[in-house]
Amino acid sequence: MNIKKWIEKNTSSLFGKTVAVTGSTGGLGREICKYLAFLGADLILLDRNPEKAAALKQELNKEYPKTDILTFTVNLESEESVISVCEKLENLPIDFFLHNAGAYSIPRHKCKTGFDNVFQINFASPCYIINRLLPTLRERKGKVIVVGSIAHNYSKSDAYEPDFASKKKASLVYGNAKRYLMFSLFSLFKNETEVSLAVAHPGITFTNITAHYPKLIFALIKHPMKIIFMKPKSAALSIISAFFTDCRYCEWIGPRYFNIWGRPKKQKLKTCGEEEIQQISLSAENILRQYTLE
What we know:
This protein is of the alpha/beta class. Helices cover 44% and strands 15% of the residues. It has a single domain, classed as Rossmann fold, CATH 3.40.50.
């Protein structure tokens, strides 16, 4: 089945709906935004690079002139930036909040919140935004969609060091942050009746987040990666599917074959036990209490 036929069969119009998207200008984010604009949604682009966001807005408006697009600059490493953008978003009619932004192998440092920046970007900041937007989303019977990762299964969480600040291996640090994001939200939304949650993942695809290897190694592997793994245009379908798929507790959507290839499929997650989910949930609550400047 080609992409056009999949879209016709598995989606419907989003006309009149507003979607806020973090990480909108990355390889996966751009493709997601193109699909959303095609489906008629209005967009709020949340990105750390205002120039790239403005260029994407211009590109989308050229192809979809009826699409209303707002752009807000937000740095997910910065507590002040995140709180500022929340104050703007709370006054807007948002139907869907999609957290797509992510950081994998980047220079590490401690943020003002006291947490490792990879943990801050991938868990603490998006979780804070989602909690702040819940009242707005409840008014509109909205939905939260977050991009998870198969990397969440690389390690188990540590209640004594939630952010893995002392760990060196990028896959462990990133995977732990995604584990916190996914399972804290499963717990948060378990008894939520007004706003729904969907966790989706693209498998492995060639985007900026995969371009973290040394230059020589990356030059050798980038072309085979493009051949072996799905392109962002295909990988983005799992995230688009999340807009139209009802997910229950600890279910997620991703490529059907080994979580790497194929069209989207909803599957039950068995990678985190209830005891650990409860521990992650308690840690998340404590982290959010520490997060605000107040």
